[in-house]
Design brief:
The chain has 18 helices and nine strands. The protein is of the alpha+beta class.
Length: 418
């Protein structure tokens, strides 16, 4: 792939070549990563609105910690820890847990805590970050309604990152892993649904977070069309997605109406797009599976408890990276394509059922039972610790075997507490 200077106008052919070159890095699956988002709240009264100065003081203190993960904040003040790629599940869990062991006590000294919920169950959305990126994003999403603002400022997730896979066919091949992600993703959504409340009231969904993604701009939140070549599908998706912002260093960024990146290249107005504009544009696309050299699975709600995040991480890595498990689970989820139909995730019937019903849906429950059993068989082969395997087994027994998900604890408090 020829290198295009960052600030020279980029052609349509160069754009497609760059997308194909940077978004899928193939090879034997060896590494994984995790991005952990958390709601930050008052330690004594989670429903209490946070003062900006109080949050900023805590952020400044957190910046001084010797973390291995990258520390960032979402627009509503959600904290995110993005791990480095790890060569084993054990190393990944240990690294992320060590960072959390530093973050939690420091926040406690500021009277703050972390909560794992896919959607803030207590407070309305409120934007703390005032950078041009988030001001523009808010203006863009507000054109379609309140879902975008709620997503930006009131949601949190466990995003699992796995290698894209091999060029050749087979259980670890890129094409297979891409298809697996878009079917297994519905099962993961249902099993780990953990956001049934908004300001204390049920929303009608087990995963309100996933429902918000479905209600937002389809040009940047739906999956690319299905097809045999993930690179071609993704390149077309990026080119035909609406441009969120045309950046200008001298003032407020322009928020165009209906301008795709392909249109922008062809018109060259109000100025020709550059490679840097393309990279920024890609960063504003939020499908449920996002290729970033690796595959970023974005559909899992944040989980309650200090170690709740370990279970979705372990299950996902086991089902993708153990060849025997990958082959088994692909056969399990492949029939779900009939329920999904032709519409892309997350707006098709399969994903909508996962968001609304969780594992109350019998088809998703049956798939989840086999997926968790398969993961439990694979984890020892991946060198997972007994503690990680036990955590997955306990989750499977408490939720999956009973057709329940963490959201059901919040809808029926007598059956479980955070």
């Amino acid at each position: 792939m020829a290198t295009v200077p960052e600030n020279r106008p980029i052609s349509e052919a160069e754009t497609e070549a760059r997308i194909r070159g940077i978004c899928f890095k193939t090879g034997p699956p060896r590494r994984s990563g995790v991005e952990l988002e958390w709601l930050v709240h008052d330690a004594h009264d989670p429903a209490r609105p946070l003062e900006t100065a109080r949050l900023e003081a805590a952020v400044a203190a957190l910046r001084g910690l010797p973390l291995r993960s990258a520390l960032t904040f979402e627009p509503g003040g959600q904290l995110e820890l993005s791990s480095r790629p790890a060569d084993s599940l054990t190393a990944l869990v240990e690294s992320a847990a060590a960072d959390l062991a530093l973050v939690r006590p420091l926040l406690a000294r500021h009277g703050l805590g972390l909560a794992g919920h896919g959607h803030d169950p207590w407070r309305p959305p409120r934007r703390f970050l005032t950078t041009p990126r988030y001001a523009t994003m808010e203006a863009y999403f507000d054109r379609r309604g309140p879902a975008g603002r709620s997503m930006m400022c009131g949601t949190a997730s466990v995003q699992v990152c796995v290698d894209a896979g091999l060029e050749e066919p087979g259980p670890l091949g890129l094409g297979r892993r891409w298809r697996l992600a878009h079917l297994l993703g519905a099962v993961l959504t249902a099993a780990f649904a953990n956001s049934p409340l908004r300001q204390g009231a049920p929303t009608g969904y087990r995963s309100t977070r996933q429902a918000l993604w479905t209600a937002m701009d389809p040009g940047r939140t739906l999956a690319p069309p299905a097809g045999p070549d993930p690179r071609a599908a993704w390149a077309g998706y990026v080119l035909d997605a609406p441009v969120m912002a045309i950046r200008d260093g001298t003032g407020a960024w322009a928020v165009p109406y209906g301008l795709t990146f392909r249109d922008w290249i062809r018109s060259g107005a109000p100025r020709p797009p550059t490679r840097d504009d393309l990279d920024y544009h890609i960063s504003t696309l939020f499908p449920p599976v996002r290729p970033r050299g690796h595959l970023e699975l974005r559909m899992i709600d944040a989980q309650r408890g200090e170690d709740g995040w370990i279970v979705p991480l372990a299950v996902t890595v086991a089902l993708f990276d153990d060849p025997q498990a990958a082959e088994t689970v692909y056969r399990v989820v492949k029939p779900l394509a009939e329920t999904a139909g032709a519409r892309p995730a997350p707006s098709n019937p399969l994903w909508l059922a996962a968001a609304r019903h969780g594992l109350r849906d019998p088809e998703l429950r049956a798939a989840a039972v086999t997926c968790f059993a398969t993961a439990l068989e694979a984890l020892p082969r991946l060198g997972a610790s007994p503690a990680v395997t036990a955590a997955v087994a306990a989750f499977a027994d408490r939720y999956v075997a009973r057709g329940r998900c963490p959201a059901d604890d919040l809808l029926t408090p007598s059956t479980g507490k955070e």
